[in-house]
Design goal:
2 strands, two-stranded antiparallel ribbon, membrane, mainly alpha, lipid biosynthesis, 3% strand, 2 domains, EC 2.7.7.41, 9 helices, 285 residues, nucleotidyltransferase, transmembrane helix
């Protein structure tokens, strides 16, 4: 593909803005972290419903209350996940989350029953899959942010290790794949190669582990395992979202970032990696 200067400038500018916004949301405080993932949560849901509506046009017929009620129900899970965070106002946030959750668990099915003729169990399954795929993942991200673990005793440590592993893996996989990649990884995403995938994962694990150990004195074994889980699950998450787009016949899930795609394009790896990292943290740490 010929080099296009204007495309390169657009992609570079949007990438810089994306990184600045992400770092600000991640690092300022807990509330900026919650706000960041609240925006990401609703953005992912809008694109998910759009893709499902293309794949199965029956899903476009769901009542408006269900369409937005299921998003709010998922967001309430995120608020509930903050229950162990030692932050001022944490109790209030959690209380709001539980009240919203109870109300919406009652109201959403009730409205669905009223609109039973235009709503099917198949569509309900799509929405429940969205809750599991999007809302539970981001709720577990908030839970990770609420845990004070490892010697650093900082709720940011594990989310940063997780996110850094995903970002570095994506970048290194692209570079390695461009240089030596020959064998396609999957027919779902022909541009990905086995060489790039393996090389990206190994480099991400090494870089994240070295920085975590020497800069923050974190235990090597735990960091290796967390970064390895993130890179493997993240790659599968990327393929999963690519499969959704292929079924829908679209190139990008949305237009969040010119040249880079939408919310699901940007966070597909993190969506699947977060639950698996949380499982390891819950049982091992």
């Amino acid at each position: 593909m010929a080099f296009n200067l204007q495309t390169f400038k657009t992609r570079s500018l949007t990438a810089v803005v994306f990184v600045i916004v992400m770092l600000a949301g991640l690092l300022i405080n807990f509330y900026s972290f919650l706000l960041l993932f609240t925006i990401i949560h609703f953005g992912c849901w809008i694109e998910y419903q759009k893709l499902l509506g293309i794949i199965d046009t029956d899903y476009k017929k769901i009542p408006l209350f269900h369409k937005y009620g299921i998003m709010l129900l998922g967001w309430s899970l995120m608020l509930c996940a903050n229950s162990v965070a030692p932050f001022a106002g944490a109790v209030a946030i959690t209380s709001i989350g539980w009240r919203m959750l109870i109300i919406l668990i009652i109201l959403v099915p009730t409205v669905d029953i009223i609109h039973l003729k235009s709503y099917t169990f198949k569509n309900l399954g799509y929405s429940l899959a969205g809750l599991l795929y999007i809302s539970v993942s981001w709720a577990l991200m908030i839970k990770l942010r609420s845990m004070y673990l490892l010697p650093a005793n900082n709720g940011l440590v594990i989310p940063l290790i997780l996110i850094a592993s995903i970002w570095i893996n994506d970048t290194m996989a692209y570079i390695v794949g461009s240089l030596i990649g020959k064998t396609p990884l999957s027919s779902i995403s022909p541009k990905k190669t086995r060489e790039g995938t393996i090389g990206g994962a190994l480099l991400a694990i090494v870089i994240v582990t070295l920085i975590s150990h020497f800069a923050f004195h974190l235990p090597v074994v735990h960091v290796i395992i967390i970064s390895a889980i993130a890179t493997v699950a993240g790659t599968i998450g990327d393929l999963l979202e690519s499969k959704l787009k292929r079924l829908a016949g679209v190139k990008d899930s949305g237009e969040l970032m010119p040249g880079h795609g939408g919310f699901l394009d940007r966070f597909d790896s993190l969506l699947l990696a977060t639950p698996f990292v949380w499982l390891y943290v819950y049982f091992a740490l």
